[in-house]
């Protein structure tokens, strides 16, 4: 027991207990835990704090909690992710491939790469099984991943096969040289045939799973739309984004009172669709090796086509 107290932490079952000392007074909770439990990353520890797996003297606390130096802290670790992505034999719809990259038609519901609570069934796992060698620039959990799509957004996604191709594609994304076109069905009748939304986007301070345009600060974002068809209670849009912010299309369209159909997170009513109606339809970029301009298109999925057919 003496040796455990000397190191100021101990393990009970799967829980870890940490005791703060006077020298820890004034430290943030997440900073303190990172120092005392270096086997876990800071982002992992912060996630556990957010999930209320960390208790300070028996009560939940925020990351920014400032220690007094007398606390006993209980940590209930969540499931740890694998150290690297694992190949899985899963179906893939390949739209295009060459020596540099693969363009995949991602189905709605498939997570792009491993993350909190999701380690199997990912697009990365499927691509690793099919192609074995991918770019390592993104790290062992995200090999080949240059950009991402939300879990329930379907459509075209690029995966880099080599480090050189990854860096060249990433540079094009950073310089906004990649054209990304989406198809979206939104609630209400959009009045103007075209529009442009430039409101900055930030993390919602209350609901951390959401983004918001209601704060004074945020990251710059550009979304342009064009009406393809108006229905009685919906509008079918072609959407072009000049930036790639988290939930950008969803939060921007909701901000002008036209939430994406089925997107409950941003205020849309419950839909029989079973997902939100957003599809990455087309992407245009420059080939990393040939320098030719390439365009890859993913057709609208059957479920979305059928849903449109029910509208009047």
Q: N-to-C SSE series?
A: HEEHHEEEEEHEHEEEEEEHEEH
Helix content: 10-25%
Mean pLDDT over the full residue set: 90
Q: What gross morphology would you assign?
A: globular
Can you put this structure into words, describing what you see?
The chain is an alpha+beta fold and 312 residues long. It has three domains: 2-75, RNA-binding S4 domain (Structural Genomics Hypothetical 15.5 Kd Protein In mrcA-pckA Intergenic Region, Chain A), CATH 3.10.290; 83-175, Pseudouridine synthase (2-Layer Sandwich); 176-312, Pseudouridine synthase. The protein is 19% helix and 26% strand. The protein contains seven helices and 16 strands. Strands 6, 7, 8, 9, 10, 13, 14, 15 and 16 form a nine-stranded mixed sheet that branches. Strands 1-2-5-3-4 form a five-stranded antiparallel sheet. Helix 2 (29-36) packs across helix 3 (42-50). It is globular and about 65 Å long. Mean pLDDT is 90; it is low at 1-13.
